[in-house]
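Good morning,

Attaching, inline, the backbone tokens for the sequence recovery test we're adding to the shared suite. The designed sequence is right after.
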């Protein structure tokens, strides 16, 4: 394994416990669970790594729980975003696998001569005019927005209880406070539905809303050795609902 192996557009600095972008000022200081998961996935690139291995440190001692592994993968996928999260693949009943894009999948870089030929005078002046127009608009009509390239993830945890008295941790993961707030109704809906379950075997449920607000990722995790379940729900409506009041029963998450 190289000093800073790549994970899509990101690189893993294991010695410092960092995951940083190749070309953008985006960097995540990794907690122990995320460092361990990446360590073992890179060690066995292309092969399935079981949960027991992912829970161990380099000496072979078990130091984190299975749910911590699931949470680590969820947080890593959330940070690296939609373009790169598919490199970390779930292997049902086993664990996870790291699949990296080969160098041959990238287009070869163009030479300076080729670039010069492509940039004709018409194109050059077109770009210049558009750039000046954009600068004028930004100067006179400033627009404030939250960047999709936030360098940290925010987590908020709440608890729901089934009729049997079993508690379930509902964990929201987001890049911005606004996304965290937007996902609140879905957490509340899940909490209400869990309260209607006679019992539930899942100990943790993770929720993450995409930056455009059109995709909700939900992961069910358990401390009892049950493989995690992952859902990605799209809703392109003006007021996305994602899950209704019967969704938990429809996916058979209640016991």
């Amino acid at each position: 394994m190289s000093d800073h192996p790549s994970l899509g557009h990101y690189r893993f600095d294991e010695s410092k416990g960092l995951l940083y972008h190749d070309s953008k000022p985006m960097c995540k200081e990794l907690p122990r669970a995320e460092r361990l998961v990446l360590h073992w996935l890179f060690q066995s690139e292309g092969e399935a790594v079981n949960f027991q291995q992912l829970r161990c440190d380099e000496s072979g001692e078990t130091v984190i729980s299975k749910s911590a592994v699931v949470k680590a993968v969820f947080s890593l996928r959330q940070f690296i975003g939609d373009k790169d999260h598919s490199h970390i693949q779930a292997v049902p009943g086993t664990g996870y696998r790291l699949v990296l894009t080969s160098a041959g999948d990238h287009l070869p870089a163009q030479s300076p001569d080729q670039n010069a030929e492509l940039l004709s005078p018409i194109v050059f002046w077109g770009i210049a005019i558009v750039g000046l127009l954009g600068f004028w608009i930004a100067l006179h009509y400033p627009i404030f927005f939250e960047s999709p390239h936030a360098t940290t993830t925010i987590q908020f945890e709440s608890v729901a209880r089934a009729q049997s008295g079993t508690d379930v941790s509902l964990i929201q993961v987001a890049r911005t406070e606004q996304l965290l707030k937007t996902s609140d109704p879905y957490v509340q809906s899940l909490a209400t539905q869990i309260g209607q379950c006679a019992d539930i075997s899942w100990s943790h449920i993770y929720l993450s809303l995409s930056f455009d607000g059109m995709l909700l990722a939900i992961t069910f995790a358990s401390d009892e050795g049950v493989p995690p379940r992952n859902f990605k729900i799209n809703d392109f409506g003006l007021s996305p609902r994602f899950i209704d009041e019967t969704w938990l029963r429809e996916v058979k998450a209640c016991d």
